[in-house]
Specification:
Number of helices: 14
Oligomer: single chain
Strand content: under 5%
Order of helices and strands: EEHHHHHHHHHHHHHH
Structural class: mainly alpha
Helix content: 55-70%
Distance between the termini: 33 Å
Shape: globular
Amino acid sequence: MVTILPIYIKNNVVLPSYDEGAPLVPRDRDPQPSRLGNVVESELQSEQQTTHAQRTSNFATLMHLLKGNIGTGILAMPNAVSNAGLLVGTVGIPILGIICVHCMHLLVISSKTLARKLGCTSLDYSSTAEQAFRLGPARVQRFASFARFCVNTMLMLTQFGFCCVYFLFVSTSLYEVVKNLSGSTPISAHGYMGILLPLMMLFNFIRSLRTLSPFSSIANVLQSSGLIMVFYYLFRGSHSGNLSPYVAPIKKLPLYFGTAMYAFEGIGVVLPLENAMATPDDFGGLNGVLNTGMVIVACLYTAVGFYGYLKYGDDVKPSITFSLPLESVSELIRLMFALAIFLSYALQLYVPISIIWPFLKKKFSLERFSSRDQLIFELLLRAFLVLITCKRKLRLIIVKDAFIMVFGIFGSIIGTYTVIKEIVEAMSKPS
């Protein structure tokens, strides 16, 4: 999902857009308070109370960023390239990556600029959108609360979708591995989802990004090792499938676009990671954590997409791991990716929880309960959210921003079409 905030550039400084004659509205005299908008203040207060010991290092943030972006999408890149052709598909991946990274930088810069104007430490994604509208032109200020609502809604739907895919990927991978090694299994793929459910709930009870950091590192090691082993298969022998023309038929491009856009899935974790850093100024910049991580991500996506399609051609499966030969090493690769995605689940669900929990605390005045009771309520919320994912599978600047907005909307539509198409095809196949 791509969300663009109203900003403009003046004297080489990015500022929120507003009418020159319109007065800025102080936070203590908000003309349009809302129950959801008031959550900003409690979020900021809790953020300011975070101790330095609870904050994450640059390396830990990089691990989280890589884990938040490298998920099941990288395994689908060869299939995506097959829908666009070798040339268009390979060149298009880094172009999409540049657009996504640009949007991430806009989000970080806008958040910092607004935080300085409001005199607070940091702002989350939805708070940034809300305050950009609230300090914007007079004609858009009344939409501030609606902007916050839209961003929160889209973020939660997006992250829930990722979690559903993660849940399904892990259970399906376990089912396939057991079936291939033993010849048969009495438990269906849905049965493995039931087995994984309590484990997912327990893992999701981890509430701190700092505590999740070692798991992200382990997941990155597993995925890196798995990718090295995948490349071993890709470089072994000659290609074994027919290759499409350099440019595939245009009717297949939406499938490529939807898969590639899904792969760059980490914009929702950008601000939570930056806000949790011990040195947030190191997040942006030319050699910052964000650029370093996303360059690695884009290079890996491009390499897996190009060499995977070059090896298997049009016969490549939706996940490259299912195109590998049925050997013990390939089954080990599937298990490694399944465990890596399992360890990434809590990070993806961290974003919806960070949105829903503060809102519920404010709406139902949960502060009146003891810390122990609040912890129980939060753990119940986390368990409920896991259950849900288990059950439900200036003019040039303005022109550029408008293009990215249309680009994002188009990507959302195409992504939805791709998912529905895959579901219909899966349901049509005999079990």
